[in-house]
Design brief:
This protein is of the alpha+beta class. The chain has 3 domains: 206 residues, Aldehyde Oxidoreductase, domain 4; 147 residues, Aldehyde Oxidoreductase, domain 4 (2-Layer Sandwich), CATH 3.30.365.10; 326 residues, 2-Layer Sandwich (Aldehyde Oxidoreductase, domain 4), CATH 3.30.365. The chain has 20 helices and 28 strands. Helix 1 packs parallel to helix 4 and helix 18 crosses helix 19. The radius of gyration is 27 Å and the shape is globular.
Length: 732
């Protein structure tokens, strides 16, 4: 996913709590406390909102308590399997003093204030949800609790320090009296918002650090959970979309009569570069599009291949780039090194390939529009529809749904804009779906990276000189131009510009080279998944050249990082690092700091004589600071590792004649259950540290740990992904 924007940094909280919190009430309706996240403005009431419901504000995330005692958390983050609905709810419920089973959830609405804010926007990415919420949402819960206590104390004519909140009620310590939050809701809303909010001591936590059942488990188990693709609207039709297979091409013709002759087809609509066939059901739309037999002018990219793109990147990489880091004189140190290693690493284009393919349901009218979709950026989605239709953004409602896997793909809303341009041509609601083939071939891909790295060793095995030049696309320049730093994409060098190690005489550069035939986008852990593979592979190679144990070599280089040493030691202990392994087995280690989290991973691999790679066991030690939801952390590390290992073993997107060659899971394959290793996640407690992110940490560790393990098993150093086909043992 995407990196954090530079304008949202540590120490962001406003000096006045009134800039952070607001409360409102409507007669008989209850209590609304709104919590505003970093840098986002306090919003005024919308005339379109119904005062009778008490919904006076439209903030990023807020608590609503009605007169019946129903507690609703409105969450600004998208739930796409990462468990954030549960994690964020734990933060709010902890300080509000309610149990999770008392909580109801709603997805936050899109609002232009999120998009236009200087500090950021309404989006889910960069493993940032819990990090951004750790203080603000706890303060929101605590403020609500304090206001409820104040209301109860006033009602009883007692002091607030004699009252205590617990499980959705306020109790008077000196008498048997108590009142529910519902009974106090209206009065609480008239209390002043606390200027100073008292947060619980970690010793008093009841929910934070525990493992409640996930709030989405029941719905996902009984089938009541609704993803974007599940939306059903009265009168809705279903459309299948096909865009030109080559970027920059256009539609030149199709057989409308043949398409309409297919039973169930109701319409055929087009854009300059795409066609959609609308039917009463999906099968009609599929068969209708086949009958339409669209024809294309493939344009200038029709002769482009992956080899062309790599050749251009190779040439670009020979030139100096934009400076990211310069310490000492790397070139001079390399010339004086006793041993020098010069290497090139290549990482391919990658698809997101989420389980739920791209889909958008829209009903566009003259006076406004409704959009039902799963998106990581509701504000951008809303603006895309506005741009496509000419409607005022405030007339467009985005109904966000559960997402069946995002991985950064739904940080872009281009598919929603495309759907809106189609949907405005018809008067009825329409669900527009990309097939799996469309989802893969029309994806916006993780950039191809071509890295040159040189490092030297002194006679006694110390690193002497380090030069890392990354060549690739700058996603930041397209997605968030303000984030570029004098031509430098911070994401492209993340994990290279800052490593866990003390590297004297270091030079890190970025050469921007944009491919014409594809569009690039964030992909789970973009910068670190690329750079940590390169850095950790080179560190491992240097250790072996110096005749040092890879673990000991890392510990010496990271001696100034106590948190790094702890995760290294824990991973080594749990994995039995140094034990005698069977023939064909090897252990690889990788250390990284990304998304404000420290992690060390040890992977054991076995390579059969046929070349087949078998993943045996992975041990990952994680220090993410305070742990809100331990089971959630473990699950995310496990999922991230599987995602990253799948990529490292099997995945790449290639082009021939301008077209993506991979079309479905038969040639863009996923790891199978019997191929998955045992995974053990070991949490290293550090409650006093700054809280870190988790969603992409496992993915970052996968490729370098695997590459180093394969070297240990076979003596073969892999510098190009994917790995399996280089051993000749890949199964179809």
């Amino acid at each position: 996913m995407k990196p954090r924007k530079n304008k949202v940094q540590k120490g962001f909280l406003p000096s006045s709590r009134r800039a952070l919190l607001g409360a409102a009430v409507s007669a008989g309706s209850g209590f609304l406390l709104s919590a505003f996240l970093p840098g986002l403005p306090l919003l005024k009431a919308s005339k379109a909102q119904d005062a009778a419901t008490g919904a006076i504000f439209s903030p990023n995330a807020f608590i609503r308590i009605d007169a019946q005692g129903k507690v609703t958390f409105i969450i600004r983050y998208a739930e796409m399997g990462q468990g954030i609905y549960t994690g964020i709810s734990i933060l709010l419920a902890e300080e509000l003093d309610v149990e999770l089973d008392q909580v109801f959830l709603e997805a936050a609405p899109a609002d232009l204030a999120y998009v236009d804010s200087v500090a950021g926007e309404e989006e889910t990415g960069g493993s940032s949800s819990t990090r951004d919420s750790w203080i603000p949402l706890r303060e929101a819960g605590a403020a609500a609790r304090m206001m409820l206590i104040a209301a109860a104390a006033h009602h009883w004519g007692v002091t607030e320090d004699t009252c205590q909140a617990r499980n959705g009620r306020v109790f008077h310590r000196d008498s048997p009296r108590s009142l529910s939050y519902g009974e106090l809701a209206e009065a609480a809303a008239h209390q002043a918002v606390p200027v100073k909010v008292s947060l619980k001591s970690p010793a008093d936590f009841k929910l934070i650090g525990t493992n409640p059942r996930r709030l989405d488990t029941k719905a996902k188990t009984d089938g009541s959970a609704r993803f974007g693709i599940d939306v059903q609207i009265t009168g809705m039709k279903i459309g299948r979309i096909m865009a030109c297979p080559v970027k920059g091409g256009r539609l030149t013709g199709y057989d409308r009569i043949a398409a309409l002759a297919v039973r169930g087809v109701v319409d055929v609509i087009t854009l300059p570069d795409a066609i959609a066939v609308i039917g009463n059901h999906m099968w009609a739309a599929i068969k209708g599009l086949e009958a339409a037999h669209p024809r294309w002018d493939y344009g200038l990219n029709a002769v482009t291949s992956t080899n062309d793109i790599v050749a251009r990147m190779k040439k670009a990489s020979e030139q100096s780039g934009v400076l990211a880091v310069k310490n000492g004189d790397a070139d001079a140190a390399l010339k004086q090194a006793d041993i020098r290693i010069d290497a090139v690493y290549e990482l391919p284009f990658l698809a997101h390939a989420a389980l739920e393919p791209i889909n958008t349901t829209l009903h566009i009218r003259q006076d406004g529009a409704d959009v039902w979709v799963g998106t990581q950026v509701p504000g951008r989605a809303r603006q895309e529809v506005a741009d496509a239709t000419g409607l005022p953004p405030e007339s467009i409602s985005v109904h966000n749904h559960l997402i069946g896997g995002g991985f950064g793909r739904r940080l872009d809303s281009n598919s929603i804009g495309q759907a809106a341009r189609f949907a405005k041509q018809v008067p009825y609601p329409v669900k527009l779906i990309w097939t799996r083939e469309e989802d893969i071939t029309q994806d916006q891909f993780r950039p191809f990276y071509y890295d040159r790295i040189s490092a030297g060793l002194t006679r006694d095995g110390a690193i002497s000189g380090w030069h890392h030049r990354t060549t690739g696309s700058a996603v930041t320049a397209r997605w968030y131009p303000e984030g570029m730093q004098k031509g430098l994409d911070p994401d492209a060098v993340e994990g290279a510009a800052q490593t866990p190690y003390a590297l004297p005489d270091q030079l890190v550069e970025f050469v921007r080279d944009e491919p014409d035939a594809v569009t690039t986008l964030w992909w789970r852990g973009v910068g670190p998944t690329h750079n940590v593979f390169v850095v950790e592979s080179m560190i491992d190679e240097l250790a072996h050249q110096a005749g040092h144990d890879p673990l000991a070599f890392r510990k010496k280089l990271a001696a100034h990082q106590p948190r790094a040493l702890k995760v290294l030691e824990e991973a080594a202990k749990q994995s039995g690092w140094g034990k005698v392994l069977p023939p064909g087995h090897g252990m690889g280690i990788a250390l990284h700091y990304s998304f404000q989290t420290w992690a060390a991973t040890v992977l054991e691999v076995a390579v059969e004589q046929s070349g087949q790679i078998r993943l045996v066991h992975v041990h990952t030690a994680v220090d993410c600071g305070p742990v809100v939801f331990p089971d959630g952390v473990v699950a995310q590390i496990q999922g991230g590792l599987i995602f990253g290992l799948t990529m490292a073993l099997y995945n790449e997107i290639t082009l021939k004649d301008g077209r993506v060659e991979q079309t479905n899971f038969h040639n863009y394959r996923m790891m199978r259950l019997n191929e998955a290793p045992d995974i053990s996640v070991h949490l290293v407690p550090n409650p006093d540290a700054e809280i870190g992110g988790i969603g992409e940490v496992g993915t970052v560790a996968a490729a370098p740990a695997l590459a180093n393990a394969l070297f240990a098993a076979t003596g073969k150093r892999l510098r190009r992904i994917p790995f399996a086909k280089q051993f000749g043992g890949e199964k179809a």
